[in-house]
Design brief:
The protein is an alpha+beta fold and 648 residues long. The protein is built from 28 helices and 17 strands. Strands 2-3-1-9-8-10 form a 6-stranded antiparallel sheet. A 6-stranded antiparallel sheet has the order 4-5-6-7-11-12. A 5-stranded parallel sheet has the order 15-14-13-16-17, with helices on both faces. Helix 10 links the parallel strand 14 and strand 15. It is globular, with a radius of gyration of 25 Å.
Length: 648
Amino acid sequence: MCGIAGFYSFKADQNRQDSLEVAYRMEAAVAHRGPDGSDIWQDEVNGLTLIHRRLSVIDLSEDGAQPMHSPSGRYIITFNGEIYNYLELRRDLEAQGIKFRGASDTEVMLAGFDHWGVEKALSKINGMFAFALWDQVEQYLHLSRDRFGKKPLYVGWIDNALVFASELKAFHAYPNFSREINQDALAIYMKYGYVHAPYSIFQNIWQLLPASVLSLDLSSIRVGENLADKMKIFWSLKDVVEEGQRNPIKKSDAIIIEEFEEKLSKCVSQRMISDVPLGAFLSGGIDSSVVVALMNQHSDEAVKTFTVGFDQVEFNEAEYAKKIATHLGTDHHEFYCSDQDALNVIPNLPIIYDEPFADESQIPTYLISALAREHVTVVLTGDGGDEILAGYDRHTKLPNLWNKIGWAPHVLRQMVCDALGLVPQEFYQKLRSNNPRFGSQVKRVLYLMGLKDTDSIYDSFISAWLGGDDVVLNGHLPNIPVRNKSEYPSNLSFFDEMVYLDTLSYRSDDLMVKMDRASMAVALEGRAPLMDYELAEYSWRMPQHLKVKNGKGKWVLREILKHHIPEELYDRPKMGFCVPLNEWLQGPLKEWANDLLDPTFLKNQGLLNEGMVTDQWKNFQNEKIEYKNRRDIWAVLMFQAWYNQWMR
């Protein structure tokens, strides 16, 4: 895991020493991603510069240093990530007579490019990665990102240069970066709470799409071209889903569960390869518990596990995690997050997330990463199970809800929900006082009853501001992949469509951004066995009842866990990695929020609809909006905090 950057200057008189000074500034901007070493490579003839910051994980010697040349000398790479099947690929290449000088996965990857070519090698590689690869023979620059977008890569234009980097911080280090906000990208952000690839918050800067390669002929490309149009997909989730529909697994449930466990165990084993200390995040939920249980089978010593807790019972899973850690015999570490801990982290969020980002679990994710980094350099996580195996409430509850109410005309449903909505939330809460969220959950169901169709229901679940382009002045929601219904797989049920869309965008643009920036801010590498692409391909061929059964998601993982952990330790309602944000914003964070949402500044800023934001903040303080709607306020707050850090 590392930080990468670089640029190609189209100025004929670009001074080599000037380029080197710029490279040093860009390298410093991503130094946190790789504290163990750095190097810069410049092409002798062309204006290309490649930059690398190293976090040493596999082959700690100089043989693993980058930028690195391929065995033939044709390619040179700056690479961020890990190739999990590199030992298998190495054996295949050695059988073809290829010799290796070191033991790194980077060298194997480069030998694969030499032997198979870029496109075929990408089809063979299983890992998380982002890289810039210079072909010195064809004079092509290849930029690429892994299938699920686990590792970030931005690319764009600054003056007469093509610039790329792991994080936007490096772009600020390049001379004359204009920092012009893309209002359409801001509309995306305000709607979802994060920016979808291929957009970035800035004009003329793009994120590579997951599973894409951008191959640029630097002798013919024109400065300022739309680079998103040139991205080529090398692995298609749509194709995977449609293949699953055509070729479902026709085996007994017991065999499918056994095969899934074998595949997941292999994924865990591959991700435990490390030359530095390794551990795991353990929340006490299904996903992380499965990962840690399988790690136990591949480890000769107690697995180091880490969790974060809260004093508020409704947000705290730490006690469950401790019980599971005790049962599995792990070397367990926990950190309880106080209001003050949150206050200490929040000023740094715009630096850690140098693009607007509003997933509030970014706070505990950073805190648990910092805790883990005191003990290990690599952690395995449970990320990815909810998306491929239907772990969210929307997967387990919405299809049944729609089956019960969808038959009724929209007008009738709207009348019923309006009438029942007049009943105070407190009345519903008293019906089930042992569930502190029951009142707001009833109100939520009533709200859903009044929506027009399944698209509207799903949209309400994933949106911060339902009309992102309403709250952004002169912003319009573009046709990003998650909104381009014409490109969805054919014949999707409501259930499958939600799972598909969550995998297509939410996982890569939200969850992976959250994990990457939080962990790399403290130079911690996170690996997610449940995000293996072959596991995803298998899951799309599985019957739905092995994902959701008896109203519970991730059924196959529950069945696997029975072999390792008593059922009473994990069979409980899903909590998620939530924080008591309402209480914080109405208490210790209120003054901070008031400053950021100053109506005069919002009006003078000229980016957001000051009236809409001010009204919503007043409603929030008066407790007139429901639990879930804090997301729109947090989205504005995170944007304003980011703006103060990077734009003023």
